[in-house]
Amino acid sequence: MAVSVMDIEEGATTSLPGKLTFQVFMCSIIAAVGGLMFGYDIGISGGVTSMDTFLIDFFPHVYAKKHRVHENNYCKFDDQLLQLFTSSLYLAGIFASFAASHLCRRFGRKPIIMSASIFFLLGAILNFFAQELGMLIGGRILLGCGIGFGNQTVPLFISEIAPARIRGGLNIAFQFLITIGILAASFVNYLTSTMKNGWRYSLGGAAVPALILLIGSFFIHETPASLIERGKDEEGKTVLRKIRGLDNIELEFNEIKRATEIANKVKSPFKELFTKRENRPPLVVGTLLQFFQQFTGINVVMFYAPVLFQTMGSGNDASLISTVVTNGVNALATILAVITVDKLGRRFFLVEGATQMMVTQLTIGALLLNYLHLVGPIKSHAVPLIVLILICIYVSGFAWSWGPLGWLIPSEIYQLEVRTTGYFCAVAMNMVCTFVIGQFFLSALCRFRSGLFFFFAVMNVIMGLFAIFFLPETRGVPIEDMAEQRWKKHWHWKKYFKQN
Ligand code: BGC
């Protein structure tokens, strides 16, 4: 199975060099452009689906519905095909990340990152020239392959290339780049929304980060772990010397070698993960964290905020500006997580974030219930502004909790032998749930109206309780001590372990 520096005992690695060298810095930044592309995709689709020129070209019936004065507010954008435009990317991403988990073991991380950028580039080009819906969806599928390849490989690559001591920080920095991508996309949408064929530039803009990644990927090193795992020990040593800036890298080399040997004893990591009792707690917790991450309702805001603002009666411009504002808050709040997550702990943020999101969802639901009637815009000017402020509070709650931690915790709770496979399960859960939200939100909004926000509020209560009762605090615990120090002592999960 694939082995990574994630797979090396944290306790043992503390004696390894912890310096951030220029090589590691550059390689990580280049790879993290994968996060930028992911973010760009998340941020671009909402704005594009609310652009009139785009709707006229591809979804004229939705355009007509949107402008019918007597059309039900909550159903203006309800269209399975329109939603497929957003969600098809994630459907492709599920399969691509599964393929990537195998391919990057066989061929290394670097070619897979390179392929991710090529998929992105082709997807962006196809979308730019799209003449019909088929080309548009085809482009989204190619982008989805890029995301699947990138999301499975980039975090792994960064973890493998980074010195163990600063791995956590670099991991959350990946999420930060996602938020920057989302922000950039909403800004691009704002600029292009008034242009003729503006949507083409928005969608084609994905080519920019893709090109940066493609060019950059020629300059990154293959990770030592991947080289050593594939029997290329000498090459692995050479890269280790380069990225650590040291001649003596024997200690780290030996650790990677040892991790590889242990991991290679497990012939079927999937079987090991699903059948061994001790693996059940991290599997359930890691995968559920991603399930809950999506059911905070975050992508309702990320994908459909412009549509929501328009539903409340804001003009096209105002709704796109509102989206830039919420995405700016998203990026800023993520920085706070990078700085404080190792001090205040994971559970604190998860519970605080869930509470903050629950309160804001309830309030938004109540406001829509009272002010957004079935037909006609909201009469009050204050209500859309209050909803915007509430959405910002909601997004910040996500950005310092379930956003980054949904990715970080699954990377630190698995036993060595099943860590990368377990991580794949988290990525896959993310893609499946993002697909479901992307595909069904607008229809659900039409059917359940403001009740949808109450549904997400309830989900936030459930996930807060889950964090309190089922999530052991993982802050500061060496990865390999997780079972001894946490799972075996947990009131519920301890029954999955043989007690000493
Ligand atoms: C989530 C995405 C979400 C983004 C928002 C990520 O952690 O996986 O689904 O759109 O955060 O910043």
UniProtKB/TrEMBL annotation:
Belongs to the major facilitator superfamily. Sugar transporter (TC 2.A.1.1) family. It comes from Eruca vesicaria subsp. sativa (Garden rocket). The chain crosses the membrane at residues 20-40, 81-100, 112-130, 136-158, 170-192, 198-220, 283-307, 319-341, 348-369, 381-402, 423-445, 451-472. This is Major facilitator superfamily (MFS) profile domain-containing protein. The keyword ATP-binding does not apply. It is found in: Membrane. It is a multi-pass membrane protein. One of its GO terms (molecular function) is symporter activity. PROSITE patterns: MFS (PS50850), SUGAR_TRANSPORT_1 (PS00216). Its main location: membrane. The lineage of its organism: Eukaryota, Viridiplantae, Streptophyta, Embryophyta, Tracheophyta. Keywords: Membrane, Sugar transport, Symport, Transmembrane, Transmembrane helix, Transport. Pfam families: Sugar_tr. CDD domains: MFS_STP. GO terms for cellular component: membrane. Residues 27-475 form the Major facilitator superfamily (MFS) profile domain.
